[in-house]
Amino acid sequence: MEHNILIIGGNGLVGKTIARILQSRNPHVTIFIGGRKGGKTERDLKIDVTDPASFQVISDKKINLIILSVNDKSDQVLQYAIKNNIDYLDITKPTPDLAKAYDIAGKSDVNSRIVFSSGWMGGIVPGLVNTISQGADTIQEVKLFVYYSVKDLAGESSAHFMAENVAVPFHDYKNDKPVSIRHFLDTETFDFSFGIGKRSAYNFDVPDLYILNKIERVPNVSVKMTYNSKFITWLLGGFQYLRIFNILSLKERKMIFGSSGNGDQAVFEIIVKDKSGNKKLSLQSTKGQAELTALSAVLHAEELARNPHENKVYFSHQLHEPLALLAQLNAYETININLAR
After folding, report:
1. Does 312 lie in the same domain as 252?
2. Which domain of life is it from (predicted)?
């Protein structure tokens, strides 16, 4: 395992969880925490993603890998990592920012491993898709269904993303063409596993839409989400249908999406249609979305250290052998996976 790892945004919920899991599995690794306010120890580094002058400490501490768990809208950290040949793993970007950063990296002279891992729950969905299909070129359709609990212990980033983007149209894909849609519309009934049962699920934007279509070339991709509260799910659909989100201020929208509980399960289900029919993979994280996102980031970091991946740009699922990724997730004590072929 690489010796010096920096987690920028390491004082947030997901960042702290990454540090805990990473250190427990790799006790010999030195973990530095980057944040705007710095800290009390020599491993707490004062780094502001909006101030490139603060990045010099990254080179001073001989950082081998940067894990970015805060949204760097201007891609300053990405460009610093490329310029200084430092491995980079980003778990934070919404779809438009991901597409922009991928374009920047693709046009750069890259001499390190640049990894984008901003898909749902740390970018593991495309890898799991590949475990239940005969190959990406045989897949006709992927549907992702997400169960989101307001009781889950959630960080600010997901709430802020929804507040900023709930009134903005986005795309899913039908017959390899983008279709403009909006959050919380176009209901589809889905029977969730793990005792959840039938729920109405609505449009939801995650980077996997972009990744599965543009990178994996799956022609039909959609994502639907339901809340643990049927009333909240219905209410958000009504707000969108009546365009109430369009007239609310950003502060008011943040109040709607900013709730965070003390912990609950997170569940997602993948339906893959290929020439042999439909297959389903169901995943439950009993400790919630922060734990699973952090675990995914740790698995990607460990894979970068374990195997000699060449210097280039990756999406995180491209680092892994699909069945190996599935096995590692299945081995974690708070993850349950059901596979129906």
Report:
1. no
2. Bacteria
